[in-house]
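Problem: given the chain below (511 residues), write out its structure.
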Amino acid sequence: MVLLAAAVCNKGGKAIISRQFVEMNRSRIEGLLAAFPKLMNTGKQHTFVETESVRYVYQPLEKLYMLLITTKASNILEDLETLRLFARVIPEYCRNLEESDIVDQAFQLIFAFDEIVALGYRENVNLAQIRTFTEMDSHEEKVFMAVRQTQEKEAKDQMRKKAKELARQRQDAERSGRAAGLGSGGFGSSSFNRGSDTTSIIDTTPMEPVKPAYNPPSRPAGKGKALNLKSRKQDVDSFVGQLQSEGEKVTSVNQSTNKAMAKVATPAANQEGVHIRVEESINVTAGRDGGLQALELHGIIKLKVNDEKLARSVLHVINNDKKGISLQTHPNIDKKMFASQSVIGLKNPEKPFPIGQDIGVLKWRFTTQDESFMPLSINCWPNESGSGCDVNIEYELEQEDLELNDVQITIPIPSGVGAPVVGDCDGDYTYDSRKNQLHWTLPVIDASNKSGSMEFSVSGHPDDFFPVNVSFVSKKSYCDIQISDLRLLEDDSPAKYSSEVCFYVDKYEIV
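Solution.
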């Protein structure tokens, strides 16, 4: 298929917008569009007409036409499928199919046209992908703009404080000058003149302009050169909070991950002299028709010594994994001792673990394309009906030894069609009209409720309901790595420790 041009024109053949995908001059495309209405036969129901050189494939849009100009050698079935996609793009940007709306959204429509066709050939995209590509919504940009606004506000506040401070200093100097001049009358006018001189010097000293720049928090005294990330994290959290207070619902993978990890994290007050954290993150991409495209899991054991007396400890690990994970110890850990005894200890016993820092001592990685290893499988079945689509979506817990908490399954909804009508639903659901997303939430998924489903109806095309995104958190390790014991290196006596496990989603989508 070679698509020459795509245009929206009125019934008189006047081009409102036109996008050429091959080299064509303006007079040529205007001539082709002007000839189009004369070739149409009102008595027939065909949606295409042909000339000696080109083929017109069209679809009426109230008072307008969505028109494709192709070569005669192109496949008419592919042309009609492409035309339907073009016709569905128009209402995404124009509420009323009027010439004024088309002109107002001309650039957005042209950008969308370019996502459908490249160099005359159809791209393999659907409406949801086109919407994503053209929006290019950036969470980082929003945070950056909020950061800049907050910095400007802080700079203005700092400028006002500085100006008030300088004004107060000048007033204090004026009052002290006047008091010195009046209180020394016995010395004649010379003392008064000194006071006047002091006052005039202060008055004539130019005030140094305060630059509206961001003043970073002062570094603590010391020789260390490490970057202090704590204040930056607090700033970003406050900026995200400002966005939310202004009605902006800010969500991201990192933010969801932080919330999930916070729910299972052990508070600092409840940590023992040694705190051990087993952390796993998973990335899954699965197909809508079944099958696993990619599964990648990263795990790590972090050790935090809170008591200096326990800085020379060894950690006993039990590896119950049967999936075939790849383990790797930190360079400062004795690899031979771990390989032979499954004990994590320092290679150099004279050099203890750092105090008060999270130290990664063991990490592992697992990749597969076997769908039996998926923690949770999702089946989404959109079926076209006369009024739109009936969507059935179900989940199945594949690893029955896991317990998934705060599970959220997010299904995209076409824009401009309103809220979906939800029928049967296991769990709860909410519809985010601003993001055009249906959130299906379940507090817990385990062996007692390892499957569930939801049904809803809404206008749209089956491709509009993908990709489906999943998030959850678990207090059980996916690879079943456990901590059995902690002992002191000096006398092999047991030591108290606290531990936690956090298994969470980095990315989990059905495309």
